[in-house]
Amino acid sequence: MAIDFTIPDAAKQVREQVRQWVQDECIPAEKELAESKDYDGVLTRLRKKAREQGLWCPFIPEEYGGMGLGPLANALVQMELGESHLGALSMNTQGPDDATMMTLLEHGTDFQKDKFLKPLLDGQKRICYSMTEKAAGADATGMQTRAEKDGKGNYVLNGEKWFSSAATAADIALVMAKTNPEAPRHQQFSTFLVELPNPGYNIIRNIPTMAVHGPLYDIMGGGHAEVEIKDLVVPEENLLGGEGQGFAMGQHRLAYGRLRHGMHNVAMAQRALDLATAHITERSTFGKPLEERQGVQFMLADCAQDLYIARLMLMHIAYKAENGMDLRQENGIAKVYLANMVHRVVDTAIQLHGALGYSLDTPLAAWYTHIRSQRLVDGPDEVHRWRTGKNVINAFKRDGTTAAAAGGELL
Ligand SMILES: Cc1cc2nc3c(=O)[nH]c(=O)nc-3n(C[C@H](O)[C@H](O)[C@H](O)COP(=O)(O)OP(=O)(O)OC[C@H]3O[C@@H](n4cnc5c(N)ncnc54)[C@H](O)[C@@H]3O)c2cc1C
After folding, report:
1. If 0-12 CB within 10 Å is exposed, 13-18 middle and 19+ buried, where does residue 128 land?
2. What is the model's pLDDT at position 109?
3. Of the residues 129, 145, 163, which should be mutated to test ligand 1's pocket, given the most ligand atoms within 8 Å of the CB?
4. What is the mean pLDDT of the chain?
5. What is the mean pLDDT of residues 133-158?
6. Which of 7, 191, 197, 393 is most buried when burial is the number of CB atoms within 10 A of its CB?
7. Probe residue for ligand 1, chosen from 144, 192, 224, 336 as the CB with the greatest number of ligand atoms within 8 Å
8. Is 162 in the pocket of ligand 1 (CB under 6 A)?
9. Per the confidence metrics, is the pTM higher than 0.85?
10. Residue 36 confidence (pLDDT)
């Protein structure tokens, strides 16, 4: 089935509304926050206003208080929100909370939805996701944290976690641990809802990283925690989705969860290209405006090409998701492309700014340090490329051509 490029009017309208929201409210609020450092005050005011305008939890169904947007409209909205670091937060669709809300919605019991999901949807609480360990990341089946029943209606967890984003800002942690060591590899692990703070979930530190940290970095959920899990008691009613379902549960998050950063990257790359273009139209070297240099025009052309491909990929995947089609191959390709695309565009924008680009007087340098993580999180490039490459071979063996694994169905 070929892609339908028609964007429904309702989706266009909501994109326009969010575009205005980001430009008129979020970007000015960034400045206010930088000056006042009053994170709670600024965010509370912003969120109240967003909610009054119906801008809240874009992909959450309306009966749960969200906007009920499908994958296409949501992708359009996320691409706008990425323009401001307050964009997603203002509409309560920030990571890692957002994808976890999806998981709770899909797999939570009535009790879990009432106790854990409701306050998340209301923006009263935040949640983090603790899967990766020092022992295992890309191949998460190497996780060592154990969960054992204590015979009194609880599981008791012991182990460690590493790089749990936003754990210091979270009220709840979704923790994965091994429950069934004898089961097949992907059925050994289960997911638990853990209330924080908790003496068994001991945040040792926020791991220092290469990302440029502003004064509000940790409180805004930017920190990545190292956690000791020691005799962590979790009531059985907090087991999410059943024993052994830890990996299977994550699959429904594919279209959005894995590409959320990529959607925001489009907005960031667009802003970087705008900054670069504004700069080169104002600056001259060797007696000639930079904008007249063909070499500079080529650099801008490469960025425009990258952005165009990125947008098309996201639209195609959203289209497939809307139509319930298998999107795993495109998702893996896009995950890698979008992470590398934003690197190239921001790097080019820095280059065109000269030393100014390297300074912290523009947002470019800080962005550059943040986006490096995207080639690692949600699966490193190599793991996706490995799977993508395997699918190419499989398609060839099956069809006598690799087209099906290379966007061939578009034509
Ligand atoms: C900023 C940031 C935020 C994060 N947030 C979270 C979070 O909230 N929750 C959470 O649970 N985790 C989180 N993570 C962890 C992240 O998911 C892992 O870092 C990632 O899965 C890679 O695991 P690893 O770091 O252990 O690398 P490893 O698994 O040790 O892999 C190291 C490298 O080996 C290569 N490699 C691995 N496997 C293959 C292969 N099959 N073929 C070829 N090459 C391969 C890749 O280059 C890879 O980068 C975060 C990480 C970062 C950097």
Report:
1. buried
2. 97
3. 163
4. 94
5. 96
6. 191
7. 224
8. no
9. yes
10. 83
